[in-house]
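[step 3/7] inverse_fold.run input=structure_tokens len=188
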């Protein structure tokens, strides 16, 4: 609050019985602002620790040592690559230079749901939580963020358990295959 002392007596006359006018004091009390600041800080710290994302659980890989990483059968792994122009590429198993032309396939978001379901049916799972089924999702630099969300939605729609899909960085061989496929199909 600002306080002003305005108790002067009217005119300014000089002489022996006239007192000097007092200087006006403008003192600002910042105590309420400090209190408000601490209340806001407390509120935001409390609410940010209490808020959790509720839309979707993300299963992101950790930077583990190779021996600590989860071992999965090669036949139970499907890698889904996201390219530009809403294109989706996929392959099953391990991609090498020898088998790249045979297993690297192209599709779109209309058909990927059925491909995911076909892979889910093809992999035997005695106990769903212990299944070897794994989907690896990799996005190209030119793919849209919307495509990454769409493919995660497909995982939820197809009831793929959270621990059975992960987003991973794309490697150079996969980037080259996407570029060559897009050039061959005329995707700009």
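[step 3/7] decode complete -> sequence:
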């Amino acid at each position: 609050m600002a306080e002003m002392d305005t108790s002067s007596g009217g005119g300014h006359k000089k002489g022996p019985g006239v007192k000097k006018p007092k200087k006006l004091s403008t003192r600002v009390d910042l105590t309420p602002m400090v209190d408000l600041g601490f209340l806001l800080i407390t509120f935001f710290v409390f609410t940010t620790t209490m808020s959790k994302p509720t839309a979707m659980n993300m299963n992101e890989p950790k930077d583990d040592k190779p021996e600590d990483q989860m071992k999965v059968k090669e036949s139970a792994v499907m890698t889904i690559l996201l390219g530009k122009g809403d294109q989706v590429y996929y392959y099953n198993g391990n991609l090498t230079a020898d088998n790249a032309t045979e297993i690297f396939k192209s599709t779109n978001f209309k058909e990927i749901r059925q491909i995911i379901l076909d892979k889910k049916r093809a992999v035997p799972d005695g106990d769903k939580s212990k299944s070897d089924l794994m989907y690896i999702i990799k996005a190209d630099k030119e793919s849209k963020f919307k495509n990454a969300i769409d493919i995660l939605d497909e995982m939820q729609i197809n009831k793929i358990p959270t621990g059975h899909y992960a987003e991973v960085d794309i490697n150079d061989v996969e980037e080259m295959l996407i570029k060559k496929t897009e050039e061959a199909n005329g995707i700009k």
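[step 4/7] annotate
Residues 96 and 173 are 9 Å apart (CA to CA).
The beta strands are 2-3, 27-28, 77-82, 87-92, 105-108, 134-139, 165-167.
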